[in-house]
Amino acid sequence: MSMNFWKKIIACLISISARIKGVKFGKNSYIGPWYDLDPKMRGVVLGEDVMIGRRAWLDIPLKSGGKIIIGSGTQIGRNAVISAVKKIEIGKKCLLSYNVSLIDHDHRFVRDVSPMDSGLTEGREIIIGENCFIGAHSFILKGVRLGKNCVVGAGSVVRESYPDYSVIAGNPAKLIKILE
User: Fold this and answer.
1) Was domain 3-178 assigned CATH 3.40.50.300?
2) Is 59 within 8 Å of 82 (Cβ atoms)?
3) Which residue in 107, 108, 174, 177 is the catalytic one?
4) Is there a contact between 11 and 26 (Cβ–Cβ < 8 Å)?
5) Cα(101)–Cα(134) distance, rounded to whole angstroms?
6) Which long-range contacts does 111-116 make (Cβ < 8 Å, 24+ apart)?
7) What three-state secondary structure class fits 5?
8) Is 107 a catalytic residue?
9) Where are the alpha helices (DSSP H) in the chain?
10) Against a cut of 0.85, is the pTM above it?
11) What is the tens place of the pLDDT at every residue in 7-41?
């Protein structure tokens, strides 16, 4: 038996908890060990050939009805955080490095109330176009839309949207150039 056979068996075993919680897995999709999922994850859909590294946290806060949709062929590095109150959609064939966070909402802040008790904001969807690269330790914040073939430099905090073929970097992220 080939090594590929055993990898598929191990991937299937690791993903049992996610499948029970409602994650939809496309053919040959994989989530690494020690991932963290909230109790009900019916809004998570992985296309075919998606690979998510270990210790990922996919979060759809209870009663939010959020969705996380990851396109076919996309690879996401270790320690990723993807938290959707509304919707986060990542296009096909994207590469997200390690320690990348996509969060479509904020915590509410109310005077004299703990942030733990104040709840979350309504959220604004995040859309990442196909063939994008997001460098390590980057944050993509609520309401951001990245066109296809965008590059986000490591350590960037992306607060606004950019068109196709943009190269952006910094905190806050700024347009560096448009790819030819």
Assistant:
1) no
2) yes
3) 107
4) no
5) 10
6) none
7) helix
8) yes
9) 3-14, 16-20, 115-118
10) yes
11) 778 777 888 888 888 889 999 898 888 777 666 67
